[in-house]
């Protein structure tokens, strides 16, 4: 929605890595070697890939970073990268959800293996159990890391490594918080208002 309404490009770390590897850039080759060795791609490599991507013309109006930065060290590296071209962060948006609600939301979700339609045990169950409303498919899929235990450990990692970004971006004067316990339309409207102001 934000891409369409504001002419921004959404960049997620996973998509960036895959595209750089496919394009065979220097940073992409470095990322490929690390991933093939079964190791995590370093912050330096991600920053180099991001530098290349931000220089492309479609990013001229701005980008939405999704899933990056996740640590204060990454946020500092990102600020340094943007400063190279006289750019900066206009808004850092914190979508605030209770931990307990997060576990319910994530551990209940599944998708149709045939058409990709999303479902949820509590919020959007199919009319006939295990059968897709849209295409009639019966091969429902759940992500292996969407179980309650894994979600709980992902939340621990979030509180230890990522939550400090709230203080970091507050100190830079760009933090915007949204109560993300409400319905999707209300959250989308708030997000749109923030991005409109940030890109004005
Ligand atoms: Zn389906």
Automatic annotation (TrEMBL):
Domain of life, source organism: Bacteria
Regions that span the bilayer: none
Primary localization class, coarse: cytoplasm
Record field: catalytic activity: AMP + ATP = 2 ADP
Leader sequence segment: none
Pathway info: Purine metabolism; AMP biosynthesis via salvage pathway; AMP from ADP: step 1/1
EC number: 2.7.4.3
Sites where the protein binds ATP: 109, 182
Entry binding sites for AMP: 13, 18, 39-41, 67-70, 74, 143, 154
Assembly, per entry: Monomer.
Record comment regarding domains: Consists of three domains, a large central CORE domain and two small peripheral domains, NMPbind and LID, which undergo movements during catalysis. The LID domain closes over the site of phosphoryl transfer upon ATP binding. Assembling and dissambling the active center during each catalytic cycle provides an effective means to prevent ATP hydrolysis. Some bacteria have evolved a zinc-coordinating structure that stabilizes the LID domain.
Protein's name in the database: Adenylate kinase
Record organism: Sedimentitalea nanhaiensis
């Amino acid at each position: 929605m934000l891409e369409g309404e504001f002419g921004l490009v959404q960049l997620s770390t996973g998509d960036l890595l895959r595209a750089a590897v496919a394009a065979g850039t220097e940073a992409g080759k470095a990322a490929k070697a690390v991933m093939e060795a079964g190791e995590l791609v370093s912050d330096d490599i991600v920053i180099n890939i991001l530098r290349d991507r931000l220089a492309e013309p479609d990013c001229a109006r701005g980008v939405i970073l999704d899933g990056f930065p996740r640590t204060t060290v990454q946020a500092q590296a990102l600020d340094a990268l943007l400063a190279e071209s006289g750019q900066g962060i206009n808004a850092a948006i914190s979508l605030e959800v209770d931990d307990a609600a997060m576990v319910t939301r994530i551990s209940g979700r599944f998708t149709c293996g045939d058409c990709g339609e999303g479902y949820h045990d509590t919020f959007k169950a199919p009319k006939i159990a295990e059968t897709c409303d849209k295409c009639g498919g019966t091969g429902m899929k759940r992500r292996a890391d969407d179980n309650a235990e894994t979600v709980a450990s992902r939340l621990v990692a979030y509180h230890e490594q990522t939550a400090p970004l709230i203080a970091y971006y507050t100190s830079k004067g760009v933090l915007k918080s949204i109560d993300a316990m409400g319905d999707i339309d209300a959250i989308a409207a708030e997000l749109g208002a923030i991005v409109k102001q940030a890109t004005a």
